[in-house]
Amino acid sequence: MKQQADPITLEVMRNGFQSVAEEMGAALIRASLSTNIKDRRDCSTAIYTAKGDLVAQAEHIPLHLGLMVSVVKKTLERFPVEQLEPGDAVITNDPYISGSHLPDICMLTPVFAECRCIALLANLAHHVDVGGMTPGSMPTISTEIFQEGLRIPPIKLRKRGQVDDTIMALIAHNVRTRYETYGDFQAQMAANNVGERRLGEIISKHGPEKTCFYMEEIINYAERRMRSRIRELPRGVFSFEDFLEGDGLSEARMKIAAKLTIEEDRIRVDFTGTDKQARGSVNSTRAVTLACVYFALKSVIDPELPSSEGSSRPVEVVTPAGTLVNPNFPAPVSNANINTSQRIADVVLGALAKVVPEKVPAAATGSMSNFTIGGVDPRTGEYYSYVETYGGGHGALEDLDGMDGVHTNMTNTRNAPAEVIEIAYPLRVERYGLVADSEGPGKARGGMGMTREITILDHEAAITLGTERRALKPWGLCGGGPGGGSDCRIEQPNGVEEALPTKVTLRVEPGTKVVLKTAGGGGYGPPVERAPEKVLRDVEQGLVSIERAREEYGVVIRKNPLRIDEEETASQRGR
């Protein structure tokens, strides 16, 4: 007799698997050594069936979580479950296998019960350096993948519980930050050890057969629910396009185009019409593109749906080979995660805005805004690599302002506190805060961009900056205005300022100050419909200037004390 799923048990098991993934993430963060993981939480964890189908994932980084499915399945092509043994740990970072960029190293561990593999545990962590031509391994000037760092095919770092010291030594020998590398690999193994132990407790309680059954039922439930939500959408074909502002070697704009076809209970997303792959490092592998599509669709169609393989089954994605969204080897890819992924998400969200505009936010800051500084620490004589991605303004919704200075869409990391930066690196944080008047004006305003200014102390350093939305500002919706643009510049020790491109890698001398400002989010609805009290509050908080309040919102504010001039405001808005 065929086993039937009980809805209560299904929910209990789903929460159990979710808890395992969350605890894996907590272990990874607490055990790691690099600031990028232990403070910024640039990592993700998940559980898969023995076939490589996603069952549950922690609430970490959408880009990681979306592409890890591809990593696991590609790894299983090299190491089928029949070749895996208890205690094994397989790692890989090759973008043409894993889908991500080289600093993201994925670790896969099998879980056995009754002498057979019944599940797989995976985590992905962004290492602060994996070699290549620049510290941080994300050069904006690379022209092929070989320049971006050490490529690791799927290999067993741990065999039957024993770490292969030869492989570990080979990796550490090719990176600048070997101390952090050793520590972060140990943390990744510890995270999967925790997951194996906790998942083993679930198996002991329910048995292997029941555990496997409910893994599959969680996936089937997600598919049924996703198809049900798609049936509620208007049928039709909806298109949108947007552009990248250069590839690091040229500032020529590059188009990303998407066409959504909504049918009975499925969606087809076709990127035909997207520009050919770039010479620079903004090429997005198909795995990254899939992650962006799944994120945008799920966040709009059913944001409360627990993530699993089933939510993607009703979705077909067409990514023409040799384009920005599916490049041919050996195209460089290091900055696609940072910039191109966000633009792909923008394009899919822009198309969805034509379907259900009340559920889609205006464009967000449009980049993860990477800032990397690397060199030799004069205090220790050792290499260091400071890596951070910066938040910006979130796009406004129909009835909700965008958040200020926050990571958006495909990323979900924390910031590195100024105190941590100054303790860990030979750097000084001069300023860190929101950028006034950077919001997209609207009935609901976009979020504010943010800025950080860092001075390099007592040594030469290599810096890499990668951002977007300087000229092509984040778009608004339904009459809302665009968010403020980004800005990159350096101030030399003699006080001379120099504007930088949105993507740049260069060496700077001691005492140089680097300034990065991120873009704000787009607004939603006509700005003159924004409640004057909300405009006054923004002025009081220093987010919006008195001049901008008048020009963009039609709200006249008097000083000493700050107050709304209701008569002048009515006249201004009546024009």
Describe this structure in words.
It contains 13 helices and 22 strands. The protein is an alpha+beta fold and 575 residues long. The chain has three domains: 7-224, no CATH class; 361-528, no CATH class; 531-575, no CATH class. The strands form five sheets. The chain has a seven-stranded antiparallel beta sheet with strand order 2-1-5-4-3-6-7, sandwiched between helices. A hairpin with a 2-residue loop joins strand 6 (155-159) and strand 7 (162-163). Helix 5 (165-173) packs across helix 6 and helix 8 runs parallel beside helix 9. The longest helix is centred in the middle third of the chain and has 29 residues, at 178-206. The chain is globular and about 80 Å long.
Quick overview of this protein structure:
With 575 residues, the protein is of the alpha+beta class. It has helices at 7-31, 35-38, 62-78, 95-98, 165-173, 178-206, 208-231, 286-301, 336-352, 418-424, 532-540, 546-553, 566-573; strands at residues 43-49, 54-57, 89-92, 104-113, 116-126, 155-159, 162-163, 236-245, 253-262, 267-270, 315-318, 370-376, 383-389, 427-434, 450-456, 461-466, 487-491, 497-499, 503-508, 513-517, 557-558, 563-564.
